[in-house]
UniProtKB/TrEMBL annotation, chain A:
One of its GO terms (molecular function) is glutaminyl-tRNA synthase (glutamine-hydrolyzing) activity. Allows the formation of correctly charged Gln-tRNA(Gln) through the transamidation of misacylated Glu-tRNA(Gln) in organisms which lack glutaminyl-tRNA synthetase. The reaction takes place in the presence of glutamine and ATP through an activated gamma-phospho-Glu-tRNA(Gln). Its EC number is 6.3.5.7. It comes from Paenibacillus aurantius. GO terms for biological process: translation. One of its GO terms (cellular component) is glutamyl-tRNA(Gln) amidotransferase complex. This is Glutamyl-tRNA(Gln) amidotransferase subunit A.
Automatic annotation (TrEMBL), chain B:
It comes from the Bacteria. PANTHER family: GLUTAMYL-TRNA(GLN) AMIDOTRANSFERASE SUBUNIT C, MITOCHONDRIAL. It comes from Paenibacillus aurantius. It holds the Pfam family GatC. Belongs to the GatC family. The gene is gatC. This is Aspartyl/glutamyl-tRNA(Asn/Gln) amidotransferase subunit C. It catalyses: L-aspartyl-tRNA(Asn) + L-glutamine + ATP + H2O = L-asparaginyl-tRNA(Asn) + L-glutamate + ADP + phosphate + 2 H(+); L-glutamyl-tRNA(Gln) + L-glutamine + ATP + H2O = L-glutaminyl-tRNA(Gln) + L-glutamate + ADP + phosphate + H(+). One of its GO terms (molecular function) is glutaminyl-tRNA synthase (glutamine-hydrolyzing) activity. GO terms for biological process: glutaminyl-tRNAGln biosynthesis via transamidation; regulation of translational fidelity; translation. Heterotrimer of A, B and C subunits. InterPro entries: Asp/Glu-ADT_sf_sub_c (IPR036113), GatC (IPR003837). Keywords: ATP-binding, Ligase, Nucleotide-binding, Protein biosynthesis. Its EC number is 6.3.5.-.
Length: 485, 95
């Protein structure tokens, strides 16, 4: 059995007893990457030497009687849009193919303080724009459950690496579902925290009012540990919240008695596959059996969320990505006679089609004459979507539904049709617009492909989301299933 | 509201992108499809609804006006495509 099948606490006990070393864990990770990554292609870069060095120094530290950090010794993968000093950070874009980080993102610093070992940087859709990893500027990643299928996106490399057992855990980022959807497609656990709970400093911005970093793990307990390590106020991120961080690990009581669950009828309607609905209904029965109650509710503005999101996220992206001009970093064109040409040619040569499409959409929506009709209108609808959730949460503790309308789709199936691709995110986007937390956990399979259950909570109530997810996990086996590679 | 190839040319200019004729044609079709879908929002009456620019109640985050160390110039220059005397070099700005 892989070391990574074991619970964090067991691993830590063995490390403390010195029957296991961090070097063993890192070897396991590097060996597994060598074995399966040629098929899964989850990584963009692996720092074997650095990881071995870090492992050695952690082992030596413990031998000298040093303290163990919260994530001591655990091999981690980081989505390639988070800056890691001395490492390439490319956002899977040709534009940044030569870019080396000169500082650490706050989450990367916090992982180091918690003493996990970073193994490598994970593939993604270019600048986090996409839901299939097919938009990576370098190569797609593949779903470990079936290599003909996409792993989801944009944190597809992160979800695939965890599912394939290449790392113990990974970090992803979620703008409209980019942690939860790939977690669902790859049969792992993915949490998007409340907007502002985890610092975005050092995360390359896509849509600043939506982006949020979160953990991808194999079980809910590990998610609680990673969240504990990365959450908290950061003066370097002006949108970072100053709330007190609860003890997420001790919130996993297994008790969901009298928990009030709302199930939005819009999340179980047309467009959602019957098998996915069936898996969600079975999951609700499990929770009912544990003393929770559920009722159908309505989130009436759900059908407007995708349009709202693509206008707002693309507008913010068109502004954020203006910084990629070929002047200070990134790939600069060889064919420019003047500064404007340098901007235009460097950008056009460096960005892929989806990134250009979204910059175009965003620039159009913000341009003179269209701002009110598109951007401002979308911001107002965002308010209505947020209010939908607030109303439901007056009477319920969590909202439950599917993470995605279907399991993973085939590679190439939706690549020519951006609008259809955008609709895969219909059940994750509303949550992002409202800024509230949500987790995806495995709850079934269709034709060998995993199905994700989405549990949504009130702002800053990650504890209840994790408690519900954990209680379900304790009474089911879905999270233990592993792909054959 | 329908996007023409001329609009696409104009927006590309604003966005500092240089698109091939083929890209212009593809984007014209795709932007029209996406914007047509976005017209769905007009079904909603949003009169009197406050816009949400940010999901959490935070505004005017201030800090003390204290000087903090910046990244060293040599470090920043490591990623610069072209450099001279510790400064980033670009083609002529003025003709």
């Amino acid at each position: 059995m892989s070391l990574f099948e074991r619970k964090l606490q067991e691993i830590h006990n063995d490390l403390a007893d010195r029957t296991l070393s961090v070097q063993d864990l890192v070897n396991e990770s590097l060996y597994r990457i060598q074995e399966v990554d040629p098929k899964v292609k989850a990584f963009l870069s692996v720092d074997e030497e650095g990881a071995r060095q870090a492992a050695l120094s952690l082992d030596e530290q413990l031998a000298k009687g040093g303290e163990r950090g919260l994530l001591y010794g655990l091999p981690a993968g980081i989505k390639d849009n988070m800056n890691t000093e001395g490492w390439k950070t490319t956002c899977a874009s040709k534009f940044l193919s030569n870019h080396t980080s000169i500082y650490d993102a706050t989450v990367v610093r916090k992982l180091r303080e918690a003493q996990s070992v970073t193994i490598g940087k994970l593939n993604m859709d270019e600048f986090a724009m996409g839901g299939s990893n097919e938009n990576s500027g370098f190569h797609p990643s593949y779903n470990p459950w079936n290599l003909d299928y996409v792993p989801g996106g944009s944190s597809g490399g992160s979800a695939a690496a965890v599912a394939a057992g290449e790392v113990y855990f990974a970090l992803g980022s979620d703008t409209g579902g980019s942690i939860r959807q790939p977690a669902a497609y790859c049969g792992v656990v993915g949490l998007k925290p409340t907007y502002g709970l985890v610092s975005r400093f050092g995360l390359v911005a896509f849509a600043s009012s939506l982006d949020q970093i979160g953990p991808i793990t194999k079980n809910v307990e590990d998610t609680a540990y990673v969240l504990q390590a990365i959450a908290g106020h950061d003066p370097l991120d002006s949108t970072s919240l100053k709330s007190t961080i609860p003890d997420y690990i001790s919130s996993l009581t297994g008790d969901v008695k009298n928990l009030r669950i709302a199930v939005p009828k819009e999340y179980m309607g047309e467009g959602v596959s019957p098998q996915v609905k069936e898996s969600v209904l079975s999951a609700l029965k499990v929770l009912e059996g544990l003393g929770a109650t559920w009722e159908e509710v309505s989130l009436p503005h759900t059908e407007y969320a995708v349009a709202t999101y693509y206008l707002l996220a693309s507008s913010e992206a068109s502004s954020n990505l203006a910084r990629f001009d070929g002047v200070r970093y990134g790939v600069r064109t060889d064919n420019a006679d003047n500064l404007i040409e340098l901007y235009r040619k460097s950008r056009s040569e460096g960005f892929g089609a989806e990134v250009k499409r979204r910059i175009m959409l965003g620039t159009y929506a913000l341009s003179s004459g269209y701002y009110d009709a598109y951007y401002l209108k979308a911001q107002k609808v965002r308010t209505l979507i947020k209010q939908d959730f607030e109303k439901v949460f007056e009477q319920y503790d969590v909202i439950i539904g599917p993470t995605a309308p279907t399991p993973a789709f085939r590679i190439g199936e939706q690549v020519d049709d951006p609008l259809t691709m955008y609709l895969n995110d219909i059940l994750t986007i509303p949550v992002s617009l409202a800024g509230i937390p949500a987790i995806s956990i495995p709850c079934g399979a269709v034709d060998g492909l995993p199905v994700g259950l989405q549990i949504i909570g009130k702002a800053l109530d990650e504890a209840t989301v994790l408690r519900t997810a954990h209680a379900f996990e304790q009474h089911t086996e879905f999270h233990k299933a592993r792909p054959q590679l | 509201m329908s996007v023409t190839i001329k609009d696409v040319e104009h927006v590309a200019k604003l966005a500092r992108l240089e698109l091939s004729v083929e890209e212009q044609q593809v984007f014209t079709g795709q932007l029209n499809a996406i914007l047509k879908y976005a017209e769905k929002l007009n079904e909603l009456n949003t009169e009197g609804v406050e816009p949400t620019s940010h999901p959490m109640p935070l505004s005017n985050v201030m800090r003390e006006d204290e000087v903090r160390p910046s990244l060293p110039v040599e470090t920043v220059m490591r990623n610069a495509p072209d450099e001279e005397d510790g400064q980033i070099k670009v083609p002529a700005v003025l003709e």
